[in-house]
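Forum: Protein Structure Q&A
Topic: Joint prediction for protein chains with partners

I've read a bunch of threads here and the consensus seems to be that you should model interacting components together rather than docking separate models afterwards. I'd like to see that in practice. Below is the full input, 858 residues plus whatever partners are listed. Could one of the regulars post the assembled result?
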Amino acid sequence: MSKTEWRVGVAGLGTVGGGLLNFLSDRAGFAPAGGKAVVTGVSARSRSRPRPFDISNLPWFDDPVELAKSPDIDIFVELIGGSDGPAKAAVEAALNVGKPVVTANKALIAEHGAELAALAESKGVPLLFEAAVMGGTPAVKMLREAMVGDDVKSVAGILNGTCNYILSEMDSSGRSFADVLSEAQRLGYAEADPTMDVGGFDAAHKISILAALAFGCAPNYAAAEIEGIDQVALLDIQLAKDLGYKIKLIASANRSDEGVLVRVHPTLVAQSHPLAQAGGALNALFIEGTRIGRIFIQGPGAGSGPTAAAVAADIADVMTAANRPVFQAPATSLTPFTPVDPARNLSRAYLRFLVKDEPGVIAAVSETLAEAGVSIESFLQKPVENAEGVPIVLTTHAVAESVLTAAIDRIANLSVVLERPRLLRIARI
Amino acid sequence: MSKTEWRVGVAGLGTVGGGLLNFLSDRAGFAPAGGKAVVTGVSARSRSRPRPFDISNLPWFDDPVELAKSPDIDIFVELIGGSDGPAKAAVEAALNVGKPVVTANKALIAEHGAELAALAESKGVPLLFEAAVMGGTPAVKMLREAMVGDDVKSVAGILNGTCNYILSEMDSSGRSFADVLSEAQRLGYAEADPTMDVGGFDAAHKISILAALAFGCAPNYAAAEIEGIDQVALLDIQLAKDLGYKIKLIASANRSDEGVLVRVHPTLVAQSHPLAQAGGALNALFIEGTRIGRIFIQGPGAGSGPTAAAVAADIADVMTAANRPVFQAPATSLTPFTPVDPARNLSRAYLRFLVKDEPGVIAAVSETLAEAGVSIESFLQKPVENAEGVPIVLTTHAVAESVLTAAIDRIANLSVVLERPRLLRIARI
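Posted by a regular:
Agreed with the consensus. Here's the joint model:
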């Protein structure tokens, strides 16, 4: 605390790195806990690449690992990205020489968080990653610090702004997934290779981190069940709307006596629910605790300004010299993560069938569902123009996924059914 | 950090104190940062008063000041309440002997926060008060820690659950303020003397604290402009609804080049706005930062469980030995609080007049407004049964409060106007 200056090394000079350099130069006196933050080293893939900010006066390192180990820095900020490779090597190098690390890297923390936490704690230095989840919206700090006086039962929300933007645009403009995605790519809202976002993998990284913080277990990205939005049809968005729902990519983690279930999938959320109303690229999260009840938090999930602000807040946290476990409980005593078989999970479901327009079809479908033990809650049939067949939609009462899947298999084989039925879950939140 | 046990003294054994004792006995191993929290002393007004929890095995102190100074405690938790008297004396006593303090006392922090922060920082010990604002919803931590990497422009929200409950009930049941208040008192949702809540003073304490955290200034409760909900008529709730609004008690703090404006008043909020949808006893807050943009947080603002969880989180923070200023900036360097004259503030307004049912009335009112420089945005006249006169309602474009007040004075003197016009602000949020 008597430190008057904190020398910061920044590896990775993309939008977040640029935002951080801008922030630290705008706020030259940034000294939230007494000492002042000063950038004393930077590293990126190319020194000469044109950037909207000036790095000519900053000591340059070709190798982020050298920057991480440099005696000229007190805090290593990793903004390279990727679960392995140079990001992991540099973070390990910094921790190994006892330097605090701040990172925005969700893949790294979701896939290697437990081992990195153990390393950080063995060296007695912090490893902070607020910017990895929800950008400038402090979900990590809330779960790690504010919820320690409670037992969290579930976290659920919208963690990928790109998907939320695409689904919101499909809903409001009536355009297809492919159309909206190409537009988002032109506007820079989606990557050239959008797989991480639209495939649900980015949201799965983030919810894996939140689950670890919420439940005091190690992050277990491998156990996450992941479904993206690339198969969400405009027709389903429109039919869901008729039933009073919006389709959102919901990432959720639930703890029960059986263990932990971490999932990402497109989900029907009642239109009046705050998560349904989080439009555009917003991120939003519900946290449910035994004592506190339900807390809702919403804000921008990405962008240079918000994400850099989160990194700056972590730098401030390093300055306070707080001695706190990386994941709520010390790495050596994290609760084992017991995955729950999703097939045993109960959900209400939305099912959409494309059927031949002939008598007896509804009876055939509903009898098959009844035989399989699936109970229907509501039913909708609407004329759709130029359709190959007639879409019928129903929602079910809560049913085990295994029962539902078996029922869908049987219905898919009915001669009156023209394609494999589409299944979407309905939010319990 | 090598501490294996943190001995906690708890002064004040009401609902929050009971919740905390229950939590610490349920979670006997509560050791969020390595050391275990153990209650080693309690104090309250009466030892023998019947309580739903057992204190017979805990060392008793008649005087909270003696508990605060006791060599048998490491952390002093103040849950007595009140801005002065024993609460202040005990907190000062603990800080003076270098003991960390955790308090849920909003009046104390709002009215004496700066001097207590200076004392705590001079002794190098934390003074934490998460439970003082929004109960279990971590608004304090968000502003103090997560927003340090940003410049906050405004905070605004619903900070008093009792008022929110009363307004929500008036809205949904069509009953008067007095009716709903007596019911809330019977149900224990409102105090026997409800002045602190319904008069807006509790919300003003809370927003004064949030303003200090947001803007890095000392809390200045004396500068808050306060209007409660005791004058909110059912008629206004109904007319506001016709115009697309709900009436909420909004506490807000805004920073501009001119200074800081801290206000609490009943406010019209568009029905689609998240603050309008925070019903029942919920608390909700918007934080707007230059870089991060808008963050929204919502949760329970009171109650034994949530508030005790917030106190427990603060105890955990003490254990981390974080060295952080009490109010974002060190007490010695807090920005001076420059209050802005509310009369210069621009607001859109809702005005309700009770007028004689005769020709030319609307012309008289609207001419007077035009002469005063108030521009009308919308206008509503509805027949109301058994009314003494005819209510007419209008909303204005943004106008300085001084201009508005002058216009109201002139209209109140018109012979066709039967009572002083009712003014409510329309939220800018």
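Chain B has 14 helices and 17 strands.
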